[in-house]
Amino acid sequence: MFDLRYYIITITAVFLSLTLGIFIGNALLGNDLVIAQQQEVIEQLRQNFSKVQEENRSLQEQFRLFQVWEETNRMFEDLTLSLLGEKTTSRARLVIVDTGDRELASHLTHYLQQWGFAVAASCTIAEGLAPENEALQEIIQGRRDGSLSEQKWQELVSYLAGAVTGTRTTDLLEQLAARGFLTLSGSPAAGVEVVLLIGGEGEGKPARIDRLDNLLIEAWLQEGVRVIVGTRVGPGSRLVQYRREGVSTIGHLDTAAGRLSLYHLLTGAQEGHFGPGEEADELLPLQWLRMQVGEN
To answer: What is the pLDDT of residue 57?
Structure first.
């Protein structure tokens, strides 16, 4: 009986030893695998970090070159305009109406004033100015009625066109500004010769161009006011929707070439379509620039 019990204990001990050995072996093998995987991840992270460092150095160099290019463009533009300014005796009185790019409008106001143009007023029309806006309906017709009628909307847009150029009273204009439908700086006054309309960009613009921008343009043309429509360089430009007699377009107002084109249009009575792409006739008024240089 004792021998059998001893045998059983021995066999049990052997199996326990084998089980423990297998467990320890698996544990040791697993640690090796984990360590190998960790080392592989660390190496990948190191390589990725080196790649990011290299890309960062490349981007910094590109940004530095871009800064140099921008500064060179600015200096060239200032030099060109100073030379042109010496020969320019007449500068148009204008207003800026913005339906699409608040930042660009602000920059251009400063630019135009810097070079001696009289900017009577600048008006930014908010996206909320639309026939279906209920708050606007209350202002115009005293009640909410789904949408302004086509006649009421056309009358409102015609009023806006006249108010910013100084041919209509500004009472309603000030009321709309107080309700956040537009912002107005300066003082609209009679005698405006040119309207610079900034808009025509983005995926959601076609309907707004048709029901707001083009109605404004029609009203200004009826008043005998010239219209220049401009946008910044970028996808989604829809300047082709503005082209008609009495309207000039600039598709790169955020560049030196675009601002030179604007200067050209504001100092003469000619029309033109400038910018990149098929929507424009040429990038710059090169013939005009050659004539200016040739006269010096």
So the answer is: 81
